[in-house]
Amino acid sequence: MNTAQLISFNGAPPIDNRWTAVSIHSCENENYDVNSEDKILVGLLVSLKHSSTSSSNNLKLRFSGAAQNNNSRGSTFTKLRAGNMNATYDRLFFFADLMTPGKCFVILTETPGRSDLLMLHAQNTVGVGDIFAIIEPDQVLRSLHGDLPLVNTSKPLYPLVNSNFAPEVLLIVPEAGKQRYFYLKNVPVMFTKVEAVRASCNGTLCDRQNCFVQTGSCGCLYFNRSSAIVLDMTVTFTTVDTNGYGNQYSVTHFRSWRTSKVFIYPMAMTADNDVYLAHTREIRDVAVNINNIVNANGGWNIAGWYRKGETVDASADTNVGGGEITSDNHPIHISYMYPAQPSCLDGIEKYPRGHGVAAQVQE
């Protein structure tokens, strides 16, 4: 990856040509620490999780990378450095490693203060679906269940401009219990059942993607003054697998503040305009028109993740490991969906119609 393509924003320091992008596998090498200066991981934030949404914030960790290899020369020392294999967390941030197709990793923050520091440059407009530079991460010694390397960094993340430098990654069904990401480009999409709804919050870090947060927090650290309104839709698209076969996927109740702004003006998302929630027919007409234009001009870029679940066999001894079997519940999650050529919508009217000039002034 050419670091000249990496442009930071939102108050983050610039990335010059002395930085080198590395993969998560490089961070797992025994000798990584001595070579970690001026190294960056580049990851797309695919999801986040707040501890309040779980019954417990305790995690059982596993050895990762060189620490897994008992025959490795430095494996014993590496394991000693790994420290406590139990951890408590405030937030979990799940990323796609853009240097390793399909590979995901996670950053764990122990306290709200650490979460706030990590996302220092992610206020107001940045969140799930954005690309970040993880600055000089430590050697990866531990991982979460599902082969998710646990990355540690003492520095804030740098948000990066998504200038289409991320490589395309096919949607491949992972092994049971594993998580993979995909990054599809120039995909024709069909939207159905598009409507404006109230989101779980009015923040941007979660991208308002959570349909329902029954208990706890969605994970947002900052909130803005706009009303918690977002579009809810079913997204259907077809992609080709490694064998050349086409597979159709439908994601129901997809919500995204970023994607919603492709179709509606910000003025329709403010607290004093809740009346727009009732205009479903007009919203759908606008969505059809805009989608037709996008599909005719390169389609959509879609990034997301897929985790094939496991469930415990009812006949297995619950006190003994290894009783997991593959679950049928393994939905696809979309983290980012945006026109491949955003300029094709220049001058195209959004919802509500007839408010183009005034609405554009507010954007």
pLDDT < 50 stretches? 311-328, 357-363
Helix content: 10-25%
Beta-strand level of the residues, as a percent range?
25-35%
* Shape field: globular
Return the structural class.
alpha+beta
- What oligomeric state best describes the polypeptide chains here? single chain
Cα-to-Cα separation, first versus last residue: 33 Å
Q: How is the topology of this model organized?
A:
Layout: E1 20-22, H1 24-27, E2 39-50, E3 58-60, E4 62-63, H2 75-82, E5 86-88, E6 91-97, E7 104-109, H3 112-118, E8 131-135, E9 142-144, E10 148-151, E11 158-160, E12 179-187, E13 189-198, E14 229-240, E15 246-255, H4 257-263, H5 280-295, E16 300-307, E17 310-312, E18 324-326, E19 332-339, H6 356-362
Parallel strand pairs: 1-2, 7-10
Antiparallel strand pairs: 2-6, 2-8, 3-5, 4-9, 6-7, 8-11, 9-10, 12-16, 13-14, 14-15, 16-19, 17-18
